[in-house]
Amino acid sequence: AVSTAVEALRKAMIAADKSALDRLSLPELGYGHSSGRLEDKAEFIDALVSGKSDFSAIELADQTVNVVDNIALVRHVFHGTRAKQGDKVKLSILTVWLERQGQWKLLARQAAKL
Question: What is the pLDDT at residue 87?
Answer without folding.
Answer: 87
